Structure formats: structure tokens, C-alpha cells
Amino acid sequence: MTEPLPAIVLIGHGMVGQRYLEALAERGATATHRITVLCEEPRPAYDRVHLTSYFSGSSPEELSLTPAGFMAEHGIELHLDDPAETVDREARTVTSRSGRVFPYDVLVLATGSYPFVPPVPGKDAPGCFVYRTIEDLLAIEAYARTLPRTPSGGTPSGAVVGGGLLGLEAAGALQGLGLTTRIVEFAPRLMPVQVDEGGGAALLRTIENMGLTVHTGVGTQAVLTGEDGSVTGMSLSDGSTVDTDLVVFSAGVRPRDQLARDCGLAVGERGGISVDARCRTSDPRVYAIGECAQAVDGRVYGLVAPGYEMAETAAEDLLGREREFTGADLSTKLKLLGVDVASFGDAHGAAEDSLDVVWSDSRSGIYKKLVISSEGVLLGGVLVGDADAYGLLRPLTGSIPPVAPEQLVLPAGLGPAAQLGPSALPDSAVICSCHNVTKKAITACATLPEVKKCTKAGTGCGSCLKVIGQLLPAAADPGLCGCFPYTRAELYEIVRTRRLSSYRELLDGHGRPEARGGEGCEVCKPAVGSIIASLAPAVGASGYVLDGEQAALQDTNDHFLANLQRNGSYSVVPRIPGGEITPDKLIVIGEVARDFGLYTKITGGQRIDLFGASVDQLPKIWARLVDAGFESGHAYGKALRTVKSCVGQTWCRYGVQDSVRMAIDLELRYRGLRAPHKLKSAVSGCARECAEAQSKDFGVIATANGWNLYVGGNGGATPRHADLLAQDLSDAELVRLIDRFLMFYIRTADRLERTSTWLERLEGGLDHLRDVVVHDSLGLCAELESLMAEHVAHYRDEWAETLQDPERLRRFVSFVNAPGAPDPTVRFVPERDQVKPDLAVLTIGGPVR
User: Fold this and answer.
1) N or C end of the chain, less CB within 10 A?
2) How far is the C-alpha of 521 from the C-alpha of 176, rounded, in Å?
3) Residues 6 or more apart from 800 whose CB is under 8 A from it?
4) pTM (predicted TM-score)
């Protein structure tokens, strides 16, 4: 008779529990052991680090960390919504809430932590929540939807008790739900564990500028309730009261060690299951890993990286291999409310005789501090507002940096430039702290997908990805032009993170030394103008491309908000979303074309182009079109052109979805979006594909269950069929993925690079794109969606704005010294009852401007 396999029971299936299962699978232990997992939550392990991304569109399924088929492939028995109730160490059994009894040879406790709720009156009132699980988020969201607006139309309000990591995440979530939000923190500054006083001040200014109210140095005395018992406000320790409709407690966590206490395992004085260097408890058959465990150094680690390391240690020890966990790096890099915050090493300068090197710019919310020993050794640091250097600085902790410390904190353009890059790091430097991966292991790989597959580096919090990219084989000088040593994507990041709203600031601060103070060139000026326009709301710039300095950056077409034609005349292209137009609007277009003698052409993008307008006629033409309800079709810009559609299920007997409505919704959402190149789209109402969606930058095809999204297609000289990115999406899922796709393209593409070329150049291709925009592998999706939301919220029709400003209208003249005179070189001849350019004039030399 075959001996039964040794039984492992894992209690808890969070991030650390899943990592333990993966460690067993990687070592072949799933074939030699019978594994049972008891999970308290109704869903498998998911990404708590990016929990807040749920409020920016990520679904619970997208947050999942459990690959499809993983449990079945490795023979793991997973019991959801059935937590362990008791452990009988003598009988070596675990009894779950359902009453089932599971025998074990090895027991692993990965029970995590629970939110600490201060014992204040009213803490259990309706409207009070904690912020820890997806179920917590669903409850907060559902309650927020029930809150009425005030009689004056004001928004409901929410308050977060706690200004640490999770507190700021919770505040971002409440703000995302449309609540007026405040934060109450007992400590004198936000994030007191991670940042010092200066960093906290920079963070406070930035967060208050986002519209949040922050109370520091005060505690919550009581939650106030109304006649129905629900939350109406809070009283604070300074004697003040604040009105609020909802309270989220996020004042820290405590290790979940009650199960261990009940079965007699040793626990720490301040909580946490006591473990040795191999993560074994006082019972050698029982391990504890993650936030529920107190390590040999007496600490309970609340970060995912130490938890992963403990999971690896426990898996190795199970197989009789030597590995120890004696402590971990508490360095962190996060984006909270859109603000980069990082701390590493001795961030507070606790070491004797330590010295600080500080750069602080309160205008831009940037604060950088390095802690240096008297011998010049880098001990730690704090970065707020700009944490790009974190990936290089953290591995250098404990060594003397190869450049002067001040060069590591000063921004470009101030002082000598620091020549510090990944090459300065030793091979032993840990680049990915989540998975403890060294520089040597990364440089043994050739591509980012290979790094992720072989080492798991870059698959955790994502803070190491930039350094990993720099360590991989590099190309020649990628500079955009002779003015800048950076690619377009890098310039985009500089403009975004520095909140630069002018080309001059960018050139003088980040251009090549020989280009600073100059006028730039015809390559970089339009590219930078496009970047600033696409980021306009986020960086505080005007969204109008002809405002101030922006006007000087534009191409000829954008300069006059119209397409220049071969004879010096211009075309007028009003937007016709989805190709749908009323008879009245058709009549207006006909009358305008007739009255101004314009050539009319119905285009392949389902709109009507009017050709032959002179510069001075453009405002007159657009005045009539705007009065009729038309707006700019952006045929002149590197922007969205059209979203073509078939008639869909409304009229067609084969249609399965309303393609016209979807096309109109998409075109109105993305109108005016500036990009590295023009964007075209289409929506087909069924698989017959009458709108030719698969030849577009992003195309949508209806299915019986929703929509399929295709990306990266185009026609032209080198046509490319679009690739299927995702299937059977709901309306909301479709829009969310297109938002992410477009903003990721705008963020990373080169100058004048269509989505098709960009996708083929993108390292990892479609798989990497899917990882980023569908699975949020880089943790960027919330930011991408936020940028798109900013664009949608701040969209203004360029022609409508131009017509309202006499100063702006002054540019629309053929000759500056004779404003009313038409250009005599712009001539036409009749053809097929319309007009066409007079080619005889063109052969002489055409118009001169």
C-alpha cells in the first residue's frame, strides 16, 4: 500500500501565502506533498499593495495574484471563505469554520494582520469602515453611493483616521469616489514612520494642493452620530469638531496571532508569533510567515518584501536546505495620491554623528534628503515628489557613493551633473528588494521579460523597473535631437514629474549644455508642444495650443487650426462623431461650402472635409459652424481624428451591439487628445467588420457578450492588422482599457511614431502591453486613468475658444501689413461642379508666406 504524501496545511492565502505556494512549486515540493489552503476571504490571493487601483477601474479579477489553473496544476486544495477556527497541535489537525478537520504534518500560518481601530465612542456606527480587503472597499463604495448631496448641491464628505501609507491610500480612494476628503493624523506629520519633518512638510503641501484637508498632531476623540445612528462628524483632541458622512479607520495594523495564542504557541510581548531564523515557531512542525510573525530581531514586518523572503525561507527549510531570515530592509517606494514617496536605510538619521544633505523645493513639492556618516558612507534617505533616484540610491546604502552626495540630490542644471548610473553599483547590489535579486542576476539576462521570468525582479512593487531597464543592453544615444539628450518618452516624464509648463523651462533645465539659452529646433519644439498639450491640466499649462509660448511651438497646421493644402489654402473639418449627423447640420455644412466656394468631400473617416478656405476666411467659416453646434475635428493635429462606425444593431439585422453609440462616446471622450502621431479608431457592430476596426490604432468589434478591443493597426504604405488586446469587455471595461492604452502610448512612444510601429518596437510586444494596461504589472494604471480623466474634464473646443478672443483672431490674416487683403496666389479652377487648386499657379512657385 502506498504511503500517503506528507500534508501541508497553509492557513491564510494573501500575498505572502501565495508566494509560499509558488516557492514550493518552484522547488518541486507540490509533487511530494499534499497541500491544503484555508482562506478566510471569498477570493484567492490578490495584490493588496495596489488595492486602491480598484477605485480607478481595476477589477478584483485584475488584482488577483493567483494565475489561472495554478492550484489545479499543482494539486493544491483551496478552500475559500472557510477560515481556520482551531488548531490541535497534539493531534496535528486544523478545524475550519465549516467544521471540516484537516490533518497536517506541517502547518504554515500566514494569517497576516488586522486593522487597528482606536477605542473611541461611535467607532462601530453605520458609516465607519476599515481599509484592508477588497470586501472593505466594496462596502465603502456601496455606502458612499447612498450618501445624498447637500441641499446646496455640495458633495458628501469622508474622513480618514491615520496619515500613514494605508491612510493616504484610503484618502485617495474617498476622493476618487467624489467625497470631500480630510485626513486626521495623531503624529505631527504625515507618514511619520517613513519620512522626516521636511519630507512630511513637502508631502503635506502637495496633498493640500490636491484639495484634501489635513489635520496633524490631533487625535480622534469620538465619532459623532445623528438621530438614525449613522456618522455625522468627529470630535478631535484639540477641541474642534468636523463634519463628515463617512469615516475610514487606517491607524495601523496588528499581527493576527490569536489562532497561535489559542493553541499555545509563543508570541511576542507586543504581538506577533515568535519564530526563529528559519521561520519556525515554538513548535517545530509549525511555521509563521508574513505580518503575523515576529522575526528573531523582535520586529513584525508589515511590508511585502520581507514577507516574500520569509515565505522563501520556510519553503527551503521544509526541504532541509539552509536559509535564514534574520531581518529585512524596510526601504519603500510608493506613489500615494499621485505623489512619489520613498525612504531607505537610516531615513531619520538615528546613527550617531550622521549628517544630512538636503534639497528642498517647496514650489514643486520636491524634497530629497540623504543621511551620510562622518566618513561619507550613505546611510539612508528620504525622497518626496521625485523618487527617480531611489533605484540607484538604495543599493548604494552602506557604501561610499562614487560621486559627491550633493550631486545625488541636486536637480539637473544646478551644480555639476552626477555621472551616477547602474554601472556604479557592485554586482552584489540588490536591485529588486521584493524578490532579493542582485545586479549580477539581472545582467545575466538580455531582456526585461527574461528578467521577470528568470528572477521575478520587477514583478513586485515595480520600483526597480527603471534601474533594470538601465542595466539591460543599451542602444546608441537616444536623444530626440541636438537640443535634448533624452528620448521623447523621457522628456514626457521630465515634464510630468517636474510639472513644467513651458518649452523654455525644459530646454534650459534639461537640454544639452550647448543648446541651453537657444531657440530649439523644428524637431523638438512641436514634440515638446505636444507633450505639454497632452499633460496640460496635470502640469498647470493651458490646454489651448495657441496660448503664449505654445503658439511658437506648433506646426503650420496647428498654427492656424486647419490643414494647409498644396495651393496655400486650408481645409475645414468639423467633427462628426461616429459619422452620425442630422439633416439640419448637413444643411449648414452645405450652406457654408456654397457661400465660401469650398470643395466638399466625404472622407473615409465618415465626415465631410471642406477645402479651399483662405486664412482670413477660417474664423468666418468656423463662426457659422460653431453656432450650428459643430466643433473642431482636429484634422490638423497629432490627435484623435475619427471613430468610424457601422450602423450596428440599431438598424442592421446582423449587429449585436450599438456600435454608433459606442463610437460617439469614444470620439467625444478622446477628442482633442494630443499624441505623438494621429490616432484613428472604429467600432464594428458585429464580426462582419464593416467599420474596418482592425486597421485602426484602436478598434472595437462587438460580440454577443460585449466588445473585443484591438490595438496597433493602421493602413498606409505599410498596413498592419491590429492585435486583440482583450475580449468580451463591458462598456466600462472597454473605456478603461482604451484610456490606459492611449495614455501609455502617449507616455512611451517616440516622436511621430504611430501605435503600430510603437507596439512592434515595444519590448515584449503585445504581451508586455497586456501586462501593463490590463494586469497593471507596472502599477501605472491608476495614474494613466487619472491623466485621461484630467484630459476629459478639461477639454475645450479650440475653435470655439478662438472665436471668443479678438487677440487670438488677429493671427488669421494672409498678410500682416494688409489684414483684409486675400492672398492673390491662392487660385482655383472649376472641376465637376466644384473647384480645385489652379496647378498653373503652383508650378510658378506657389504662395510665399
Assistant:
1) N
2) 41
3) 626, 631
4) 0.56
